[in-house]
Amino acid sequence: MAQDLTGNIIADKYRLDSLYRAGAESDLYSATHRLMDKKVTIRVLHGRFAADEIERERFFERSKRESGAGAISLPNVVDFGTDREGFSYCIYEAFIGDTLRSVLEQDGKFPVHSAVSIAQQSAAALAIAHSVEIVHGNLSAENVLLSNDSDGNIVARIIDIDTPNPILAEKENATALDFAYLAPELCAGSDKADQRTDIYSVGVLLYTMLAGVPPFTGEKPTEVMLKHIEEMPSPLSAFRSDIPDGLEPVILQALSKNPEMRQASATQLADELAAVGTVPEAKAKAATGGFWKTALMMLFGVGLLASALIYATRVKQTDPITSLQPDANGQPVQPLNPATGIEERNLASLPGGTDVNSNLSMAPGTMPGGDGYDPWANAPTLQPPSGTYTIPSDTDSPFTMDPGCTMLPSGLVICPTRMPQAEPTPPPPRTPSTNTNTSPRPILTPTPAAPVRTPTPAAPPANQPETL
């Protein structure tokens, strides 16, 4: 902020009564024409900019274009120039009314018809400014003045045209609310405001008047800027139920992340808002057609979200060659050390001196497993039943054993079998072999053996444990 000039005389006739608003390049003062005793508003360029000829000429060129706009919703320029004290100034008719921001803080939500009317007037004023190549670039609730005409209708007037936005102004003690009206492309780093950024700001103004809060809020400016780039606003139905048909699609189009998806001009936005017209405070919704209206809104929202993702992806592209640079102070990754057996030796040196990984070092009688646990230690001892039972030999019991058979310790029963005597067979004539180093092996004709009874292992007696 430059030095407060309250009390100074500008151009020998305007007395600066009080500071109206401080800016990054210039300050607004409430002033009085001393000879006419008429209230005016004066913008005074900061001294460091007034000393720069380029900045001074830019200030005068903007004042000249403002004077040619000739709209009731824009400040009416009375005079501009540089006085003999070196003050570069622009004289406006007195600013009358309260800022939209102060009214929102005091009253909250606006009636629908009032909010639409203010937004429509703002868009129409911007259309006139755009026609003379003036872009606001910093439109917010702080830059809209509200007053009433003789008939009691609300009149909106836009001020602070072509002033630096909060990013370029580098405003001290900037709050998150100062960034609530910036277009996504400005938040993403573009320093060039155009007509489409003004359209986005009008959409934020209208949304804020209807919902009572801006579409994107946060504790820090960076948080709000990121939401402008990546997130979609909450539906207005979450704040009120009297939104007329056709109004929310107009607002959502103005709030598109992609500038190409917004209204083509401020004039188109003003016409669309005027077409909505005034609506009653309580809207009666038709019982039929609700499904298709909801489906249309969802389809429109999906389209806006898709365009937002495409725009965010294009804006936030990164070059991997430049973003993934090696760390000059980094250390190479060290390989894992080879196995040394230290951990195994540490386990072997546990109290008791026993290698827990070896079954060869167990004490006699110790069960395998390394911990000496015997799962059969508490099992009951199986004892054979007392007495014997003799199976008669003339029965067909499979447990009987023929006389002369022998049971091996393994339980296998072997019985002798008599082989019949085969008649001798004369050997076949020998055929000389062509290979003198080998002799033909005799071909033995197998003699069928008499059928024999296949020995059957005897089953162990009942309740007798098997012999292993």
Labels describing this entry:
468 residues; alpha+beta; six-stranded antiparallel beta sheet; three-stranded antiparallel beta sheet; 11 strands; 12% strand; elongated
Q: Can you describe this structure in just a few lines?
A:
With 468 residues, this protein is an alpha+beta fold. The protein has helices at residues 47-50, 53-69, 100-107, 112-131, 166-169, 184-187, 195-211, 221-230, 247-254, 266-276, 290-315, 320-323, 342-348, and strands at 9-10, 14-21, 26-33, 38-45, 77-82, 88-93, 98-99, 144-148, 154-158, 406-407, 413-414. The strands form three sheets. The chain has a six-stranded antiparallel β-sheet. A three-stranded antiparallel β-sheet has the order 7-8-9. The chain has a two-stranded antiparallel ribbon with strand order 10-11.
